[in-house]
Amino acid sequence: MSNAIKVGLACCASLAAVLVVNAFRGAPAASPEVVMVSKGIDVDAGSVAERLAESLRFATVSHRDEAEVERAPFVAMRAWAEQSYPLLHDPALVERHDVGEGQLFILRGSEPLEDPVLLLAHVDVVPAEAASRDAWTYDPFGGVIADGYVWGRGSLDDKASAISIYEAMEALLRAGIQPRRTLIAAIGEDEEVRGLRGAARLADLLLTLDVRAFMVLDEGMALLDGAFEGVQSEVGLIGVTERGYATLELLAEAEGGHSSMPPERSAVFSLSRALARLEEHPMDAHIDGVVGELLDRLRFEQPPLQRLVTSNPWLFGGLITRQMESAPGSNAMLRTTFAPTIVRAGEVENSLPTQARAWVNARIHPSDTVSGVLAHVRALVADLGVTVSSLEGASEPPLASPASGRAWELLCRSMSVVAPDCVQAPSLVVGATDARHYARLSDHVYRFVPMRLKPEDLPRIHGVDERISVENLAELVRFYLELALSA
Fold it and tell me: What CATH number is given for 45-239+400-486 in this structure?
């Protein structure tokens, strides 16, 4: 055997050894058994479901234009909440602040010098489109309990969280139990349209109250079953950060005139080419950072061959990227994405419009910035004469919170009470949440509610037949109780 062959075999053996060592390094320690500290507090699943169903009958739909918001459902839901949760609304027991339709509830803890736990939720919902109403099994604003589920718009996003927080705080007050840390609930009114009227103003108020939170917890991620190839266990994804947000306006202008004599380049064609380029030239993918932490944690749940690949991104990064790009959800974790959501041009079919305009929603990966995204898009369409600007309200991706330390451990412990066999992992929230407005108040901002979801359930969020199981809803209440009493 020649020396060259010997060297080649030695290199192959060394490479194989490195791959195998990486695949089995750093296995997580077994989680200690968790004892339920809220065991003595009864959670009546049926009663909680009834109250959630009642809340869903208020069509608290938010709109970007404040003038379009119908206030009556918000006012009515607040009056309903005051009757349904009398102890929570008793000023002798709980300090309350109203900011527009948003609210703060402050339940003082027994250790006033300890930083508080801040729980977030929102009561506004997206519309149920008229075109899809017939596809719903039940009226989206009917608040129906059937087949073991509570059905309706907001049952997942996000009235289930708000009602569960109300239920947990009311239960503590009813039992006469004072948590060690002060518990603050911040309930927003317009998360679905950026949270500038609700969460941003509530966060400002908390700053004036000199609040520095031990932990901020919002919606964002959940307990997912079957969402990751090769992973048999349920996965509890905790959002440690989220993508940034910007809505870009693309404007093409051209001479108008009669449609029988179109110019070489019309406004509509120029805009269409610009949108096509956005689709054909995506921004760079990244499998490091939070996504890298997630992959590193999940590898221990994968079959040997898949684990070998995931454990060695330095060699198989291209393969991992291509696999994640194949599904919209995982692709959104990799990069900044562009979604044209509104396109407008023309008024009649036989007249050329002088302007064609598109609004493109950009969700910005933590590796990118708003200015970088703008530069990318402008460079792509520069030769088409299309101008690009960013609408008001753009936000950069927030810094990632640590996937370790006391706040992280508290969150994982509370999750383990309702889902003892789940795998816990940090994750990137691909959408935007109210949590970004509260990053000024804490270094530990997380996005997780223990909703049990399968891949087929994900389209229900903002989609048709939104629902949550009665059993899972009770688990949400138990989770918040554990969090409050363990902090």
Answer: 3.40.630.10
Parallel, antiparallel, or unpaired for β 355-364 and 337-345? antiparallel
Handedness of CA 149, 152, 153, 155 (dihedral sign): negative
213, 442 contact by CB (below 8 A): yes
Identify which of 223, 154, 216 has the alpha carbon closest to the alpha carbon of residue 191: 154
Q: State pLDDT tens for residues 245-276.
A: 999 999 999 888 878 888 878 899 999 999 99
**pTM for the full predicted model:** 0.91
The CATH topology of domain 241-390 is: Alpha-Beta Plaits (3.30.70)
How far apart (Å, rounded) are the C-alpha atoms in residues 89 and 98? 12
Mode of pairing for the β-strands spanning 452-453 and 215-218 = unpaired
Would you please indicate which residues are annotated as catalytic (active-site) residues? 124, 191
- What are the domain boundaries of the chain? 45-239+400-486, 241-390
Q: For 455-474, how does the pLDDT look when each residue is reduced to its tens digit (9 = 90+)?
A: 999 999 999 999 999 999 99
Contact between 119 and 185 under an 8 Å Cβ cutoff? The reply is yes
Strand order in the sheet with 144-146: 144-146, 149-151, 467-469
